[in-house]
Amino acid sequence: DFYTGSEKILEKNREYIISLSERVCSLVSPDGSDGIGYYFLDWSTNGTEAGKYGSRALLVAALKAAEQLSEYCGSKDTVKLCGAKAEILKKSEWKHCLSKQTDAVAALAGCFDKHKAAKEILKNGAKGFSTFMSYYLLKVAAARDMSGALSVLEEYYGAMLKLGATTFWEDFDIAWAENASAIDEIPEEGKTDIHGDNGAFCYKGFRHSLCHGWSSAPAAFLAEEVLGIRISEPGCKKIRIAPRLGNLEWAEGKYPTPYGTVTVSCKNLGGEIKTEWTAPPGITLITE
Q1: pLDDT grade for 134, boundaries at 50, 70 and 90
Q2: 267: which strand partners?
Q3: CA-CA distance, 211 to 227, in Å (whole number)?
Q4: Mean pLDDT of 37-41
Q5: pLDDT digit string (tens) for 224-261?
Q6: Half-sphere exposure for 150 (CA within 13 Å, toward CB)
């Protein structure tokens, strides 16, 4: 895979990858309609028009990924088919559904203007954010305004921390924080039980997880967008470092690779960023 540089998984699943890519392509008709069946983007848009158009944008992203995988697999016909189907879907009807999640996925898939999407995402701060989609929301917002994206991240995940979170929660609406007792306290009379009184669909009451991997977007976002650590060559042989601190004074972190740990430390010196790093032998660092 791209992270380890190993082609074993690719070779083992070559036929499956090609057949799956063709299956994804079959979901798109020549007129731009789709055969998704059940539209699901995340719980907050479930059963809404935003969920439908977000799912269609996600299908475009899936077709682009399938196109890339098919190229690795050496299937030129599948590469062409995936690209054609993605273009058909991108040119079909698109609706702005006043959903930050849908705007984010659509922008990344090339179905919606990224600057307009970022503006909508940053509007009203963390209102309308969801844990499942937060990586995409923050990524699109940061492309326009890193300081604004970091402020929303602090508001949203900071509220979880103030409510006693020590792990990432499966679901969280910023409105839940109002007059709520912390998760590590016995709920006070007259206050909301942040866990038991919230949730929707099958996660009403004490059903949603308080330790959920899909909500850990800040870990990837801070590494990729703030520290600016990006793998430039399979196996992490080349890594690009281009920090963007926004309104932060400093940032530092560690990034695991097959060769060992890369460390990055950067400071904002009045608009100029001073960056220091270490990398194990076998890795070439490209700085910007």
Answers
A1: very high
A2: 250, 274
A3: 25
A4: 94
A5: 999 999 999 989 999 999 999 999 999 999 999 999 99
A6: 16
Query: Mean pLDDT lowest for which of 105-114, 135-144, 197-206, 214-223?
Result: 197-206
The gap between the terminal CA atoms of the chain, to the nearest Å, is 26
Q: What is the DSSP letter of 28?
A: B
How many Cβ atoms are within 10 Å of 3's Cβ, its own excluded? Answer: 12
SS3 7: coil
For residue 275, the 8-state DSSP code is E
Q: Is residue 14 classed as helix, strand or coil in its secondary structure?
A: helix
Q: How far is CA 115 from CA 96, 126, 211, in A?
A: 14, 18, 33
Whole-number average pLDDT of the chain:
94
Q: How far is CA 26 from CA 38, 47, 75, 82, 233, in A?
A: 15, 23, 16, 10, 32
| Phi, then psi, of 240 in degrees rounded to 5 | -90, 140
Residue 202: CB atoms within 10 Å: 8
Can you give the length of the chain in residues? 288
Instruction: Report d(CA 164, CA 118) in Å as an integer.
Output: 30
Cα dihedral sign for 23, 29, 33, 37? negative
Q: Which of 156, 152, 157, 155 is nearest to 139 (CA)?
A: 152
SS (H, E, C) 210-267: CCCHHHCHHHHHHHHHHCCEEECCHHHCEEEECCCCCCCCEEEEEEEECCEEEEEEEE
Classify residue 270 as exposed, middle or buried by CB count within 10 Å of its CB (0-12, 13-18, 19+): exposed
φ, ψ of residue 262 to 5 degrees: the values are -95, 135
Instruction: Specify whether the CB–CB gap between 73 and 10 falls below 8 A.
Output: yes
d(C-alpha 270, C-alpha 247), whole Å: 11
Residue 94 has pLDDT above 90, yes or no: no
